[in-house]
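Researcher: I've got a protein sequence and the SMILES for zinc ion. Could you write out the 3D structure of the bound complex as structure tokens? I'd like something to compare against our soaking experiments later this week.
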Amino acid sequence: MSLPSELLNQIGVVLELIVAFFTATLVAFWIGFAVWTFRDIRSRTRDIFAWLLAVILVLALGPVGLLLYLLMRPKDTLAAVYDRQLEEEALLREITERRACPNCQTITEPGWLICPQCRTELRRTCAACGKPLELHWIACPYCTTPVAEPQYVDESRFRPAVIAPPPATTTEPVAAPATLTK
Ligand SMILES: [Zn+2]
Ligand SMILES: [Zn+2]
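Model: Sure. Here is the predicted complex with zinc ion in place.
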């Protein structure tokens, strides 16, 4: 039994269309892989040689190349690396700022109220709970007591001249580190 030639022609045309469709889809995906790879590698390294290598790998091997690229690509994006560097720098700056006496650069401990070398006021104690407070704070973070604003302005203006620690309660925590340094 033989099929009519017209029907055979129609089947051939349909098959050609299907093959063309799949080829076009495959090419589109291939190009898509390469474009995605280019964008991805560009966000991870500034090395143009690495960009070329990654795109050529994906263009040459397609999905397999993409898989290889995903296995070998740099772990972090440049933006993530930059963010982490900023965080580390900020942390380092905070630590050094906190620990050095603004007057004589002596390394101080976070709980100290005055510098043991030059008696510069570093912190004051909370009137309510006695915890050390930074000079620029306007409220105690431990017990929420507000720090009196006028007193803060007054004392900071006279800060270089003020040498004696204000209340008797402050002498205890100060005495311990001061004697340690002697
Ligand atoms: Zn000092
Ligand atoms: Zn307090």
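Model: The beta strands are 123-125, 132-134. The chain has six helices and two strands.
Researcher: Great, I'll pass this along to the crystallography team.
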